[in-house]
Amino acid sequence: MFRMLAMTKMLKVMLVITLVSVLTSGLVMAGCSPSSAQGVEVGNLAPDFQLQNLDGQTVSLGNLQGKPVLINFWKTTCPSCVSEMPYIQEIYEEWSDKGLVVLAINIGESSAKVEEFMQSYNLSFTVLLDTKQNVAQKYNFQYIPTTFFIDKDGIIQDKVIGAFQNKAQIENRLSKIMP
After folding, report:
1. Could you state, in order of their start, the residue ranges of all structural domains in the chain?
2. What are phi and psi of 113, to 5 degrees?
3. Does the pLDDT at position 31 exceed 60?
4. From CA 85, how far away is CA 96, in angstroms rounded?
5. Is the pLDDT of residue 146 over 80?
6. Residue 37 to residues 45, 147, 151, 158: CA-CA distances in angstroms?
7. 5: pLDDT confidence band, cut at 50, 70 and 90?
């Protein structure tokens, strides 16, 4: 019985190793490396998007190539999202002069509602409006807030699900994308 369990476990391990080898060689044969594959996992090229900010200007992630970017998905009706906004504002104020771009992508709400929220909390970082939730779908996350840390080459270096409890938690993650 013990010998049979050990063999079953060994077969499972061998199957996983084989599967990983096949997938890795498939990427190499296709001319891709994990870091050039587009997707929403750490190590992937962040999916490009174009959204309007509160002034009606279009912002494209692709146009920010060469700069580290913090993307935070949120809603005004999400208590966890609201609780971390002061920390994101502090990061914006202290790190934007060092090259960091902060993009807060609001999901599904009107510009009037978002603008009122920003004014009432004295927030000044860039907010993009994903009114049709196309970018939220493209980034395929399940909970808000969700934050992506993207390096100057457009590669996702970190992804955080849930609210930050303080500014230091964000700063710890910034070390992965800031020069």
Report:
1. 2-32, 35-174
2. -65, -45
3. no
4. 16
5. yes
6. 6, 20, 15, 16
7. very low
Answer whether 98's CB lies under 8 Å from 69's CB. no
Note the maximum CA span of the chain.
69
Q: Which of residues 171 and 36 earns the better pLDDT score?
A: 171
**CATH 3.40.30.10 describes domain 35-174:** yes
Q: What is the pTM of this model?
A: 0.79
pLDDT at 63 over 60: yes
What's the mean pLDDT in 38-48?
Answer: 90
CA neighbor of 144 nearest in space, from 135, 152, 155, 154? 135
What distance, in Å, lies between the first and last C-alpha atoms of the chain?
56
Q: How far apart are CA 59 and CA 75, in angstroms?
A: 19
What is the torsion angle, in degrees rounded to the nearest 10, for the CA atoms of residue 160, residue 125, residue 106 and residue 139? Answer: -40
- Judged by phi (left if over 0) then psi (alpha if -120 to 50, else beta), residue 162 lies in left
Distance of CA 55 to the CA centre of its chain: 23
> In 3-state terms, what secondary structure has residue 75?
coil
